[in-house]
Amino acid sequence: MVALERSLEAAMNARIIGSGSETMVLAHGFGGDQSVWDKVLPCLTKHYQVVLFDWTFSGAVKDPNLFDPLKYSSYDAFADDLIALLDELHLESSLVFVGHSMSGMIGCIASIKRPQLFNRLILVAASPRYINIDDYEGGFDDATIDGIISSIESDYENWTSNFALLVVDNSDPISVNNLAKCLKRMRHEFAVPLAKTVFRSDKRDILDEVTTPCTIIQTTNDIVVPGSVADYMHKKIKGKSTVEIVNTNGHFPQLTAHLEFLAVLAGVLGFEI
């Protein structure tokens, strides 16, 4: 049972750092925590007030009662938490939202629920659906997703190490190790239902409701999200959108190519590195 009796700000380890007249929200993805943004923070905090937080499934969140697998079996519940957290922080309009992986779609949903909340969505390695269907290439077939979930269920410790090696460019072993540690901190009883929510999600139908301008950031080789997904989102999102490519392998450009990632953000948002 989820009992958010204390503030969301405290429960989700939220903090605001940096300077600037505009505010940027950074949201991590599956198995991560706010530390995945550490490499880009020194630059971003020179130009923005930056909001950081941990989703309730994160191993960085100490109270296990905050994550209810049934409630969070849909991205909508995460979007509701995001909106409620920003309301609590008195941040109610014209924010820049940077969402990595699953948080990209969560940000899209929040922008539909509260159109004035964000003036730009930065969707980093995001996907509305991971499973191939008809002429849509999500990157995986049903059997592969079933295998991933089975591995998480049966041998989570080993899966975390292997997954980190697959999704983070191996030329950056420190980042591989840091992500593996993040994944291992996430409770196994959260990882299984969350993996089902993420990998079996299908949010393609909401894209034509997204009117906030979007920047879709894709790496040159992402085993989780193929380039075809970025092209699909670009075509389907109702608002103005562009696709920006970061020249790195893996699912975490903010870790393995952080300077190029910042250069993309600077070009889109108009600040200097």
Structure description:
This protein is an alpha/beta fold. It has helices at residues 8-11, 41-47, 75-88, 102-113, 142-154, 156-167, 173-185, 188-199, 227-236, 253-256, 258-269; strands at residues 15-18, 22-27, 48-52, 95-100, 118-124, 214-221, 241-249. The model has no long low-confidence stretch (mean pLDDT 95). It is globular, with a radius of gyration of 17 Å. Helix 2 (41-47) links the parallel strand 2 and strand 3 (48-52). A 7-stranded mixed β-sheet has the order 1-3-2-4-5-6-7. Helix 3 crosses helix 4.
Give a short account of the largest sheet: 7 strands, mixed
Mean pLDDT across the residues is 95
Strand order of the largest sheet: 1-3-2-4-5-6-7
End-to-end separation: 44 Å
- Please tally the helical runs, counting DSSP H or I stretches of 4 or more residues: 11
Q: Radius of gyration, rounded?
A: 17 Å
The percentage helix is 40-55%
H/E element order: HEEHEHEHEHHHHEHEHH
Q: What percent of residues are in strands?
A: 15-25%
Would you count the extended β strands for me? 7
Structural class: alpha/beta
The geometry reads as globular
Low-confidence region ranges: none
Offer a concise description of the structure.
By secondary structure, the protein is an alpha/beta fold.
